[in-house]
Write a structure and sequence with these properties.
Layout (H helix, E strand, L loop, with lengths): L14 E8 L2 H10 L6 E8 L17 E8 L10 H16 L7 E4 L3 E4 L2 E12 L5 E9 L24 H19 L5 H10 L7 E5 L4 E9 L5 E6 L2 E5 L3 E4 L1
Parallel strand pairs: 1-2
Antiparallel strand pairs: 2-3, 3-7, 4-5, 5-6, 6-7, 8-9, 8-12, 9-10, 10-11
Amino acid sequence: MVSDRRRRISLGDFRHEALSETSSTNSECLARARAGDPGNLWVTAERQTGGRGRRGRLWVSERGNLYASLLLIDPAPIERLGSLPLAVAVAVHQAIRQVLPAGAEPLEVKWPNDILIGRKKTCGILVEGEQLPDGRYALIVGIGINVSVMPDNPLYPVTCLRQHASAASPEELFAHLFAAMAELLEIWDQGRGIAEITARWRAIACGVGEKITVNLPDRSISGQFAGIDDNGLLMLDTGAGRIMSIAAGDVFFG
């Protein structure tokens, strides 16, 4: 049960375990949760043998990039969890910004939480949850950032930090991510800080006002990206004054 009382979050609230190799940092976190871990645990790996992206897509995970997952236990009431991916995206954007040189191509967020540099994907985020047998709810935030290796992605152009003159190592980048996530989770405040989170997300959003196509599980819909509403849902202007709210989907520009 999540308390509705505000809790201050500090760096000292989080633990970190660094692995050389694992099948998936998300799977590792979930296994820890099932074994009773209290949460606020970061797991990083130099290499993943079974990394995955959204909708079960394979995430190639060779050494040289950052693969990190954060285990949270009962981070907010279920009805307020929908805004968490936006907070995560803002934190990752903030961390990457710290290691990009001045003058780099625009660093933006593609709804809901892909991070782009010059309209090319450099980071994917996968949020997964599971109700545990003891009644707790485990939420895992998986983050893969292309630091020096670019896996092929037939769906979207990709890039890595090295291509943008960043000399940061995965370890240095993670140190920034560790701090940024603690800061943004405190601002998010178990979902109560959604107004501040959506404001920050809008300030770094990619493609507002442009024509987009959103791929849903059963169809594709095109229209103008009208931004996000106060709950973080994508607003798609399909014409004739009709705005459609979308909770999940893959966004493509043009």
